[in-house]
Design a protein that fits this description.
Layout lengths: L6 H8 L24 E5 L4 H7 L3 E2 L2 E2 L13 E3 L7 E3 L6 E3 L4 H13 L2 E2 L2 E2 L6 E4 L11 E16 L5 E3 H8 L6 E2 L2 E2 L1 E2 L1 E2 L4 H9 L13 E2 L4 H4 L5 E6 H8 L8 H5 L2 E3 L1 E3 L11 E4 L2 E4 L1 H5 L4 E9 L12 H7 L12 H9 L18 E3 L14 E7 L2 E7 L11 E7 L5 E8 L4 E4 L5 E11 L2 E2 L3 E7 L3 E7 L2 E2 L5 E8 L8 E6 L2 E7 L5 E5 L7 E9 L8 E10 L4 E5 L3 E2 L6 E7 L8 E6 L2 E7 L4 E5 L6 E9 L8 E2 L3 E5 L1
Parallel strand pairs: 1-4, 1-9, 11-19, 14-17, 15-16, 33-39, 41-48
Antiparallel strand pairs: 2-3, 5-6, 7-8, 9-22, 10-17, 10-18, 10-22, 10-23, 12-13, 20-21, 24-25, 25-28, 26-27, 26-29, 29-30, 29-31, 32-34, 34-37, 35-36, 35-38, 38-39, 40-42, 42-45, 43-44, 43-46, 46-47, 46-48
Helix pairs in contact: 1-11
Length: 658
């Protein structure tokens, strides 16, 4: 690709094959009639002829079929003129719609093709792929459209009569402003403007300090870049694409100016605001042919880039709407060269009066690319942020989101998920269809990550939903218990394992509800036996066992059931072997159980009859028996039990009453 301009490029612009201008210039929609190609472009009059040539069509009698631009898959261009038949049809079986005349209507048709809105009265969804534009974006809200520069043009002033040979910006301002007397140095002048929607008109007015609100709205208008219609009398002047002037006068492009030129029309020299050395002519002559003057083209007042405008999402390789054919033809990025930037394409561009620039195909805004919003009737705003939920897994991160209930005019088209490192550097971006509301990143190294999720529509990316946190490897916690009697120490055997060869370390916590009932530190094998309180109530407990994780392992937890049963007591008695039948004997009963001191009631039975009772204190009680009839009595003690200790019948004992 040519990266610097040279004298050879200027000569190529002037020394061209071409015949005489046609008396009635032919329009150059894709030929032959009824031809349909994949990449459809409409819009600017200024660049229509060069784009027709790059499409491989016949322009002004010369066929450019041998240098037709195509994508890597063979997709070709279909460039439809700004003027011609009232309507065009761009797809086989598609609708016929009003021909977009000029940069603005071309961009509007492209926008309506994206949104599905009507262009004038016809729905043109999917009918246009790019717009030719000789100016930058009008709508600066959003980034739906990317303006890709492919050449440098300039706007000059075509004049008729010697009194307008040299002009200044100030003089042009006075001539075109509202309320102007339309005189210059005592001479009456006849200013003309291109049609509304013309990129040349918009650019020229801005260059001389005017706009549609301050220009003289009574001025006559003609189709842009047509001197014959504009310069019908001496003193007439009209802004004109210098590239188009060169191409017409060199008989490269259809000629709409030869009659005016024969009557003395020419491009005026301009006093450029940044120059102090006099006026500059926009053109020079090389071997009898017109050629650009680089200094004039590069001037920031009247020099301008010309663009092919494409949907931004179509040239984003990470987008689900990425269009490789559009990318191949128009975009230069890294090692990828746009078809428009090939040597053969740049020779054609030079032939049509434009300067080749090293930024042909650039999508970098620091290198002349521009971005702008849709130029359509239904725009609205970008979507609000979705509600984001994240789940950290084993070296993974699962995202799920709920769309915002705030609905802009244009629906959500896709969701963009971006994973970033701890420093904010982008690791990966994934674009997902609007029907998708979840996504997982897997195989991540441990560390801190950030995530953003945006809902996008044709206006642009919505507000980001964000998350920042640590991604670790998984740990698994398992626990077992054994049924334990009250008073004995219950134990929870815990094993924690880690993935990716990482050994768990640290503490494990056991809770009964919200109460911590035990903690323990894992050994080198990831195990620990945790002794709990020996006074857990008699019941089946659902214990939660949790491991907090480490810098490389996620937390994990489990639940385990622990059954605490009543303690089994032992009952012993101390008693006299004989008593007087007139005295009351006493029996001491002791009830014991492991880990607890039983309390409650003790009964003394003779057979099945209760003959005395007592209440334990400190696990003992001395019970006074009633007077026993003379004879031998077989008795036994019975411990009734409690909420924590089972009941128990003691061994029989004998007392002889005398």
């Amino acid at each position: 690709m040519r990266r610097t301009r040279s004298t050879a490029a200027l000569v190529a612009a002037a020394v061209v094959a071409g015949g005489l201008a046609l008396a009635s210039p032919a329009y150059a929609d894709p030929t032959p009639a009824g031809t349909f190609r994949q990449l459809v472009g409409v819009g600017s009059d200024t660049t229509q002829d060069v784009m027709n040539a790059l499409a491989g069509d016949t322009v002004n009698g010369t066929s450019y079929a041998s240098t037709a631009l195509k994508s890597s898959t063979g997709a070709g261009l279909a460039s439809y003129d700004a003027i011609g038949s009232a309507t065009i049809q761009t797809r086989s079986g598609g609708p016929s719609f009003n021909r977009p005349n000029g940069s603005g209507p071309g961009r509007t048709a492209l926008s309506d093709s994206l949104t599905g809105d009507k262009f004038n009265d016809t729905t043109v969804a999917g009918q246009v792929d790019f717009a030719r534009s000789s100016g930058g974006p009008t709508n600066l809200v959003g980034n739906a459209l990317t303006y890709i520069p492919f050449a440098r043009d300039a706007v000059g002033v075509a004049v008729r009569g010697t009194g307008l040979d040299t002009l200044t910006v100030g003089q042009l301002f006075d001539i075109y402003k509202a309320g102007s007397t339309h005189t210059l140095n005592g001479q009456t002048v006849h200013p003309v403007l291109p049609q509304l929607g013309s990129g040349t008109r918009k650019f020229f007015l801005a260059a001389i300090g005017l706009n549609e609100g301050t220009v003289d709205t009574t001025l006559p208008t003609v189709q842009e870049n047509q001197a014959n219609a504009a310069l019908t009398q001496d003193g007439a002047l009209v802004p004109f694409s210098v590239g188009s002037w060169i191409a017409q006068n060199n008989h490269i492009a259809p000629d709409y100016s030869s009659n005016a030129v024969a009557a003395g029309a020419h491009l005026a020299s301009i006093q450029l605001p940044t120059d102090t050395g006099g006026v500059t002519s926009p053109v020079t002559t090389v071997d009898g042919k017109l050629a650009p003057v680089s200094h004039y083209y590069e001037n920031s007042t009247f020099g301008r880039d010309v663009y092919n405008v494409v949907p931004t999402r179509a040239i984003d390789p990470t987008s689900i709407f990425f269009d490789k054919d559009i990318y191949d033809v128009f975009v230069t990025s890294g090692d990828h060269e746009a078809a428009t930037a090939s040597d053969s394409a740049e020779e054609v561009i030079a032939d049509f009066g434009f300067l080749n620039e090293p930024y042909n195909g650039s999508i970098n805004q620091a290198k002349h690319a521009r971005v702008g919003g849709l130029e359509s009737t239904t725009v609205g705003s970008a979507p609000d942020k979705p509600t984001l939920k994240t789940t950290v897994g084993d070296a993974s991160l699962k995202l799920s989101w709920t769309p915002s209930t705030i609905k802009p005019a244009l629906p959500v088209t896709d969701y963009r998920v971006t994973l970033k490192d701890a420093d904010g550097g982008v690791i990966i971006t994934k674009d997902l269809p609007s029907t998708t509301t979840s996504f997982s990143f897997t195989g991540l190294a441990t560390g801190t990550y950030g995530v953003t999720v945006t809902a996008d529509n044709l206006v642009g990316a919505g507000t980001e939903a964000t998350w920042t946190g640590a991604v670790k490897y998984a740990s698994t916690t398992k626990a077992t218990t054994a049924t334990t009697a009250y008073g004995k120490t219950p134990k929870v055997a815990v094993t924690v394992t880690g993935t990716h060869g990482v050994k768990p370390t640290g503490k494990v916590t056991v809770k009964d509800g919200t109460t911590v009932v035990g903690t323990g530190t894992l050994d080198s094998s990831g195990k620990v036996s945790i002794g709990l309180s020996n006074h857990l109530k008699v019941a089946t407990h659902s214990l939660s066992v949790s491991y907090p994780g480490t810098s490389k392992l996620n937390a994990s937890s489990t639940t385990v059931s622990l059954k605490i049963t009543k303690a089994t007591p032992a009952v012993s008695t101390s008693h006299p072997t004989s008593v007087s039948h007139t005295a009351k004997g006493k029996v001491t009963v002791k009830v014991t159980a492991t880990g607890t001191t039983p309390g409650g009631t003790v009964r003394i039975y003779q057979g099945s009859k209760v003959i005395a009772t007592g209440t334990l204190s400190g696990g003992k009680v001395t019970i006074t028996l009633p007077k026993l009839a003379k004879g031998k009595h077989t008795l036994h003690a019975f411990y009734v039990g409690s909420s924590t200790v089972n009941s128990k019948t003691g061994a029989n004992f004998t007392i002889t009453s005398k």
